[in-house]
Design goal:
The chain has 240 residues and is an alpha/beta fold. The chain is built from seven helices and 14 strands. α2 links the parallel β2 and β3. The longest helix is centred in the first third of the chain and has 11 residues. It is globular and about 50 Å long.
Length: 240
């Protein structure tokens, strides 16, 4: 019997999906299709929102109409003591937005950071937007602390840094550039709202979008200057 190699996948979205575009679920449908299952088991992690009931309801309201088996994991009301088995039963993990600093603290306290890494290494698809995007990288540009945008150390499943909402929040771009120019953050990727960065292993494989004009960006330091390269996504609406 031939054993298929494990494919490690992460879809990091700058914004969009059911929580920002409830009438435009192109990104969410893309994530579901990656499982190659008729009804994949997808689990929503609303940790960054403090496990907001409203956020959880919005998730079910959208995914109940899609070909999948939706569930969620609340760390404030956990369904089981065996979180590893609970996560490993899923095909897809979908992490919501909110406070990244609080998310990281809670995940580490519960050991969820290590569970998610092991799940990813065993083929469970990881995805998310905003806080649920930057969590997978080494570092992220976050508004978790009131005031100026800051750098947060994240899980490091993916190399470099990440900045979501690049076109949706006016301080994102200048803050990312400033942090890079001062050497406070590693080079990495930014994504507009509606854009997903699809990584296979630790390599960016594809860029997809739910909005025709949305873009992704690669940022690096060349000499003493920040170089920003536009990365054109595949608009998923063309596939309808």
């Amino acid at each position: 019997m031939t054993i298929k190699p494990v494919v490690k996948q992460i879809i990091a979205m700058g914004g969009g999906g059911f929580s920002m575009e409830p009438e435009n679920l192109l990104l969410d449908k893309y994530i579901l299709e990656l499982s190659n299952k008729t009804n994949p088991k997808i689990c929503f992690l609303p940790t960054a929102s403090g496990d907001s009931d409203r956020y959880i309801v919005r998730f079910y309201s959208s995914f109940i109409n899609l070909p999948c088996i939706p569930s969620h994991l609340s760390l404030f009301n956990p369904p089981t003591a065996d979180l590893k088995s609970f996560i490993f039963e899923k095909d897809i993990i979908y992490v919501g937005g909110g406070n990244e600093k609080s998310l990281m603290a809670l995940w580490k306290e519960w050991g969820l950071d290590n569970i998610l890494r092991e799940a990813w290494e065993n083929g469970v698809i990881l995805s998310g937007l905003s806080a649920g995007s930057i969590c997978w990288f080494e570092q992220g540009v976050t508004d978790s602390i009131p005031g100026e945008l800051t750098v947060l150390e994240c899980l490091g499943f993916l190399k470099g840094s990440n900045c979501p909402h690049y076109d949706g929040e006016p301080q994102r771009k200048p803050s990312y550039h400033q942090l890079l120019s001062k050497g406070l953050i590693n080079p990495g990727y930014a994504a507009d709202d509606g854009v997903g960065l699809h990584f296979i292993g630790d390599k960016l494989d594809k860029i997809i979008s739910s909005r025709p004009q949305a873009k992704a960006y690669q940022l690096e330091i060349i000499g003493n200057n920040v170089k920003e390269t536009i990365l054109e996504p595949i608009y998923l609406g063309n596939n309808l």
